[in-house]
Design a protein that fits this description.
By secondary structure, this protein is an alpha+beta fold. The chain contains 3 helices and 7 strands. β3 and β4 form a beta hairpin. Strands 1, 2, 3, 4, 5, 6 and 7 form a 7-stranded mixed β-sheet that branches. The protein is globular, with a radius of gyration of 15 Å. It has a single domain, classed as Nuclear Transport Factor 2, Chain: A (Roll), CATH 3.10.450.50.
């Protein structure tokens, strides 16, 4: 795997680590230069917008975390080193366990990410959150989950 591929997959994993650690601000900071698609239409947010949604709807427990574990798998990486552009398509599974919920998958979907190289560093420039495919019991993960669209929350 090329150094560029490692750097970009590490960005995917840092995002998951920050979300699972309850560091919503840190996860949003990774997306600070990204256009973020949250629905199947032409609805885009910036990092501040997605952070607002996360803070409103993601339950944070007394331990300071959402009690989740994001597993990102099967990254398909395409890099244009000359142009400093890349894409990664990957799968995610979000597991959760709380005092009232046994360990189980609660969300499964895909991320379609685009990256750009600025100087020597890669960063997100686009993320598609609209590809949520399967859900389990989200009542321990989301506030007001019954009436909330699920886009942009995992």
């Amino acid at each position: 795997m090329s150094n560029s591929a490692v750097e970009m997959t590490n960005l995917l994993y840092r995002y998951a680590e920050r979300m699972d650690g309850g560091d919503l601000e840190g996860a949003a900071a990774l997306l600070q230069h990204a256009r973020i698609k949250v629905t199947n239409g032409d609805n885009f947010l910036d990092a501040a917008g997605i952070l607002l949604i996360w803070k409103q709807y993601i339950k944070i427990y007394p331990c300071g975390t959402p009690r989740t574990k994001h597993v990102i798998s099967n990254p398909i990486i395409e890099i244009d080193e000359t142009a400093g552009k890349a894409t990664i398509r990957s799968n995610y599974t979000v597991f959760q366990a709380t005092h009232g919920l046994a360990l189980q998958p609660i969300a499964v979907g895909r991320y379609h990410d685009e990256f750009e190289r600025v100087g020597q560093a890669w960063r997100f420039c686009f993320r598609d959150y609209s590809l949520l495919e399967l859900t389990g019991d989200l009542s321990f993960h989301l506030n007001d989950f019954e009436s909330r669209r699920l886009d942009g929350l995992s």
